[in-house]
Design goal:
By secondary structure, the protein is of the alpha+beta class. Among the domains are: 119-132 and 140-157 and 162-200 and 379-417, no CATH class; 211-363 and 430-530, Outer membrane efflux proteins (OEP) (Up-down Bundle). The protein has twelve helices and eight strands. A hairpin with a 5-residue loop joins strand 3 and strand 4. Helix 3 crosses helix 6 and helix 4 (93-113) packs antiparallel against helix 6 (209-272). The longest helix is centred in the last third of the chain and has 69 residues, at 423-491. The two termini are 43 Å apart.
């Protein structure tokens, strides 16, 4: 291949590189990612600086809202606690985001493990020179030369911190200078070089420090994700039982409204018969109005709990704005359990992900201390290079000489750098030690807090069990008192106010019993959460989500 052909080839390669670089700069990589492009989205200044007012349309307070003509009547969907758990694990958006974190952490670990991958080295150089030379006394002439050098090698990082490099170089020199034996001349070279640190950055332990940190980060991410799964399950249990309590409360208030309506009808009959004064009707109507207000409050509370459950389960076609009525049909199971507090505390100290995360961070701190101590050592490096040289007027002759290994070089070098004072490295060591001691104090404090949470949750379970017994007894007595007051009213010994007061007390007793039942179930959920476990007969096995990378 002649020199003009080489120049044309190099010029074509350079032009192609410029075109590719221009296309990359103009298009960018943002178009390959999902979501809006940063080059397309422009946020107006008013959206950031201006606060708008909320405009509401006034309506006649006596006007009854009419449904939209195409509005579908609300359907009823009965859900069990197990179904809600499954839906939450499957559809919860926050959990989905958390399940991607282990995949990201695994890629970070893979990135660190790839630090010892071998690399191919390639280099090409072309030079055309024209230098002045004084060949004769009064004559200055040019010395022209064309140089082409090619270099191909392989670099292999070692886990001990060193580097092994295999290299083959080929050069061609064509010149019109006087005294050149070979023109053109070929000079191939084969070399093997080893560079190994002896103190700082030496050894497998120091050079795998970043891999250990990434591996611990991977496990920490798994622990955090497991904690997020437990949080979602505990949250869905609490929301489910609060929805159950809200629905039962609504049923109680609706029942009391019916009883108040029946009391009003009975009072009207007695007044029309002349057996009671007109004021009895007013008293009964006031009782109906009071129960109607209680129904409105209970309905609003039930809708709030219903929307909360819809948000958590995130079921397709069951948006928070849908009119679908959710009916929880799993009933509470008020069973008294024997709570061994010492065993519960041991389970919590073993199973809480927060303590496991701190333990993994302490392992990271221990590795960081050793790495900081290694970085404080003097820098000493041993280098060795072995070269085989060749030379010839043709490339074949030059490589024959190279293969014969007739001309061999050996170079051995030792480089030592000792910092004066080394205060920066010593400061880094102290920082790593202080960080570990800080983490140890945090772990001890977290253990105390976990013990407190377990004991508090266990006491709450016992307290709510006693509340169930007391509330059930109170409900029975208030029911009997209400029936007695109603009979006394029929005999003329009591007024409607006395009956309505007994009725309200009966309703409050029923509400207290419902609250005690649901709070007992929630306290069991809190106890399981405090010990790092979940309620139920089946274990949960979670796997990270691997989203598409393209």
């Amino acid at each position: 291949m002649g020199l003009p052909n080489r120049r044309r080839a190099l010029t074509a390669v350079c032009r192609a590189g410029v075109v590719v670089l221009a296309l990359v700069l103009l298009t960018g990589c943002d178009t390959y990612l999902p979501g809006p492009s940063y080059s397309e989205v422009k946020i107006p200044r008013e959206k950031l600086r201006q606060i708008e007012t909320l405009e509401l349309a006034e309506v006649d307070p006596n006007k009854v809202p009419t449904p939209e003509p195409n509005e579908v009547p609300p359907a009823v969907l009965a859900l069990s606690l197990e179904e809600c758990r499954a839906l939450a694990l499957q559809n919860n958006l926050q959990l989905k985001a958390s399940l991607i974190e282990p995949t990201i952490a695994a890629e970070r670990l893979s990135e660190e493990e790839a630090k010892f991958e071998a690399s191919i080295l390639a280099n090409a150089n072309f030079a055309k020179t024209d230098r002045p030379a004084n060949r004769f006394e009064d004559e200055i002439t040019g010395s022209k030369s064309d140089y082409l050098g090619l270099d191909l090698g392989l670099r292999v990082p070692l886990r001990t911190g060193g580097t092994v490099t295999f290299d083959v170089a080929d050069t061609r020199l064509e010149t019109d200078a006087i005294g050149s034996t070979f023109n053109p001349s070929y000079t191939p070279t084969a070399s093997v070089s080893i560079s190994q640190p002896l103190l700082r950055d030496a050894g497998k332990w120091a050079n795998t420090h970043s891999i250990r940190l990434a591996a611990y980060d991977y496990q920490i991410t798994d622990a955090r994700t497991k904690l997020e799964v437990i949080n979602v399950l505990a949250a869905i249990d609490r929301v489910y039982w609060r929805l159950y309590a809200a629905r039962k409360e609504l049923e109680v208030r609706a029942q009391q409204h019916e009883l108040a309506q029946a009391q009003l009808e009975q009072a009207r009959r007695f007044v029309n018969a002349g057996e009671r004064a007109q004021v009895e009707i007013i008293r009964a109507e006031a009782g109906v109005a009071q129960q109607l207000e209680a129904i409105i409050v209970a309905e609003n509370n039930y809708r709030d709990r219903e929307r909360e459950l819809k948000r958590v389960i995130n079921k397709a076609g069951l948006d928070m704005q849908t009119p679908t009525i959710l009916v929880p049909f799993t009933e509470p199971d008020p069973v008294r359990y024997e709570l061994e507090r010492s065993r519960l505390i041991a389970t919590a100290l073993e199973g809480r992900m927060e303590l496991l995360e701190l333990q993994l961070q302490l392992l990271q701190d221990a590795s960081s201390i050793d790495y900081a101590r290694n970085r404080a050592l003097p820098l000493a490096s041993l280098d060795y290079v072995y070269n085989i040289n060749g030379l010839g007027g043709t490339r074949r002759d030059a490589y024959d000489l190279l293969i014969d290994s007739a001309f061999v070089d050996h170079r051995l070098g030792l480089q030592v750098v000792i910092p004066l004072g080394n205060k920066a490295a010593e400061s880094r060591i102290r920082q790593a030690i202080y960080r570990r001691r800080q983490r140890l104090a945090s772990r001890a404090d977290r253990q105390i807090l976990i013990k407190q949470e377990v004991l508090t949750a266990a006491d709450s379970v016992e307290t709510n069990w006693q509340r169930i017994l007391a509330a059930r007894q109170n409900t029975i007595l208030q029911s009997r008192l209400y029936e007695a007051e109603k009979r006394q009213f029929e005999l003329g010994a009591r007024t409607s106010t006395d009956v309505l007061d007994a009725q309200i007390n009966f309703a409050n007793a029923q509400s207290a019993e419902i609250a005690a039942l649901t709070e007992y179930q929630i306290s069991l959920v809190d106890l399981a959460y405090a010990t790092g476990t979940i309620l139920g007969a089946d274990r949960i096995q979670w796997d990270p989500i691997v989203p598409p990378a393209r």
